[in-house]
Amino acid sequence: MKKNKLLSTALVAVIASAAAFGAQAADKGFYAGAGVGQSFVDEGAYDDEDTAFSVFGGYQFNRYFGLEGGYADFGKLEPRGAGPELEASSVYLTAVGTLPITDKFSAYAKAGIQRWDLDTAIPSVVGNSDDSGTDPTYGLGVQYRFTDHVALRGEYSRFQIEDTDLDLAQLQVRYDF
To answer: Are 155 and 137 a contacting pair, CB within 8 Å?
Structure first.
């Protein structure tokens, strides 16, 4: 009797593991996409928003974890008063943790590092003469999968540039290969 119970438990565990592996295998692979939205800054001499866009690509290791790299162009940000316009962009690499809610809908969080570039240094930061640097980036999003290959994402990300926070809200289209 004990042997049958042990065998049954082992069989259920093997079947559940195989099912989990099969589900993960369907959620693995390379993906790429693009997005458009608004960039926002409200710090120091700057309080503005502009149209922004991004392109990204990554690898989904399983349905819960992936790595993503991309490029974001934040557009032109104008100062409140006198001062130069800022044109900012970023190249980033993030780890992405995904929480499946249904078969088609999921939420995700991402965090990583970015290399930002400005056309001119931020004048409100005392002693700042840099027009590029490396700082953290992080964000939250939701994703709705229309097909096995196409998904729509809504994402809100923060890019730190020196002591200034630049936010980005976007709609993105993701294509899985």
So the answer is: no
